Amino acid sequence: MNLIRVLDAVDPRICAFRDVKERDLTGRQGLFVAEGEVVLRVLVSAASRCEPVAVLIAEKRLEALRDILECLPEDVPVYTAPQDVLDGIAGFHLHRGILALGRKPGAPALEDFLEGMPDRAVLVGACGIGNHDNMGGLFRNAAAFGAAGLLLDTTCCDPFYRKAIRVSVGAALRTPFVEGVTAAAMVEALQARDFEVLALTPSAAETLAQLKPAPRTAILLGSEGPGLPAEVIARCRPLAIRMSGGFDSLNVATTSAVALHHLTRAAETPWGA
Amino acid sequence: MNLIRVLDAVDPRICAFRDVKERDLTGRQGLFVAEGEVVLRVLVSAASRCEPVAVLIAEKRLEALRDILECLPEDVPVYTAPQDVLDGIAGFHLHRGILALGRKPGAPALEDFLEGMPDRAVLVGACGIGNHDNMGGLFRNAAAFGAAGLLLDTTCCDPFYRKAIRVSVGAALRTPFVEGVTAAAMVEALQARDFEVLALTPSAAETLAQLKPAPRTAILLGSEGPGLPAEVIARCRPLAIRMSGGFDSLNVATTSAVALHHLTRAAETPWGA
């Protein structure tokens, strides 16, 4: 372990960690900052698609986390500081006591991303998801139900934003995704690869529970409030989650879990695999 | 509409709204404060179990919300103030521009609550849910899927906390619940009323997808991390949501939605009602 003690919040070696909250908003040239033990464990795991660049950790947490820190490559510095110095670096009280700096993986092109998909696969397409909690929730649920990846349209927020990573419990660092495609291009490319594209919308006549899923299926989710654009829905198979009269409102990440459970449970139901 | 203009943040008539954040933590003698248009619409609706006591609203929002405000009884004052005075009263920038003071409904006894349940019903039992986002999510999902009510054990947080109400999109104000019972008493009372009690736990051998639900079913959910106590699980039918290898982690509110969708979709599946 490449351990380096830091005693000054303005030490130039840890400048990448400074003022974390403000810098969340400006980007970091291909790097991201993640926080907490759960996320650090994912970052150093074999499943991670991201490289660790540096770690900053409270002195008092060092012993308890030694097993993770020893998995880091020797060229990744582990900066350690007293809690008050750490708080001064981050710009707020960092009660989890861990920050990790990582490098984002290269973004695949849409065609390359779809090229590698297996014959049986579920994908999650997200349109206009601007809330980092919801983005993190989508990644968490995609990972939990074994989705092969996510497609984020041009109006989605960054899944490498600190809060999105935290809410994803690290799934943002391991689940493959493409970004920066329009919803129309996403639907067209999926259908060209024999994915049945299901547009989740409360206005649909057919319900999720009635669906027998195709081997390759993608679910398309819009933002809460406006939902998916009508012209996108028109090109897909629209599907509703049946809800109780007078209260048809589910969170978008919750919707993804309900749909993914239905799609991935097919092997367990009477209709078989 | 009983409209009263307020020009001073320390006006004694609006003292119930002062320093909202701090007072969230101390309780309000049977009253609660809710925020935002969506929640206010639920509070004044016929479905609400709570009485509105007073409303405080930004002057600039008055016209747009006139249709809701005119539904209020004449004895409920509608205080209105410029945005800066409103912020001074609340103690933070109240960008939604609406606060409502309401009275909690009387808490039913466990036996009375169960006495009124129909022959076909789904209930949600929550044990140790201390996070207000999760509590709000449980209420939102219970309402969305038409659950007949919730049971909160002694270690759950208050669903009338401002953030829980907001996340519930008002469901906390309309969905019946009991609170302050132990998990053991909850399970015993449910089973005595012919409810099959399903303990959601990743350790179960049987999966949710395999379950054909009984007419009366209750799902029991523990907090993230520790989950349900082993002695509680032992008295129920344990059930897992099958997840992808290496990432068996769902948020507790999300878990409720997945389970409620499965239970309430029974009427739509091949096995019939």
Automatic annotation (TrEMBL), chains A, B:
GO terms for molecular function: methyltransferase activity. The keyword Methyltransferase applies. It holds the Pfam family SpoU_methylase. The keyword DNA damage does not apply. CDD domains: SpoU-like_rRNA-MTase. Residues 124-261 form the tRNA/rRNA methyltransferase SpoU type domain. GO terms for biological process: methylation. Keywords: Methyltransferase, Transferase. Transmembrane segments: none annotated. This is RNA methyltransferase. It comes from Brevundimonas pondensis. The lineage of its organism: Bacteria, Pseudomonadati, Pseudomonadota, Alphaproteobacteria, Caulobacterales.
